[in-house]
Amino acid sequence: MVEAPRQGGGLKVSILKQYSVFMANRPGSLAKLTALFGDANVNIVGIASEVRDDSGLVRIAVEGDGDTSGILSRAGFASVESRLLSVEAEDTPGSLAEISKRLGDGGINITTVYGTSLSTQVSRILVAVENADDAYKLLAAGE
After folding, report:
1. Residues 92 and 128 reside in one and the same domain
2. Looking at the whole model, is its pTM more than 0.90?
């Protein structure tokens, strides 16, 4: 995980792995999927899902460099591994707008975004982009 320190109310930016997992939309499917992560001692730091009819797509952001893709494959789950940014910012109105603007002004296209507050002061925003390295440099530099 690559990480830049937060300075004076700025952003703390790191690059994480995201797994987009395709699965059936049935009771217990999510429990089976997330149990794999727990059993492998892999911490899930973000999760989002999209469901259509009888199937779904679950995006899971994790810390660490383990063989999560292999764990998913061996359990019969089709998945796609990608990199995404974890951006910790002040939990104030307009923070996401500022991050989005900085990326857009830098020519970085956002493909997926989800997040939550970590406390009453800090939000974690998970941002999938077309070029994680360039986006990381742009946000970590505070430009």
Report:
1. yes
2. no
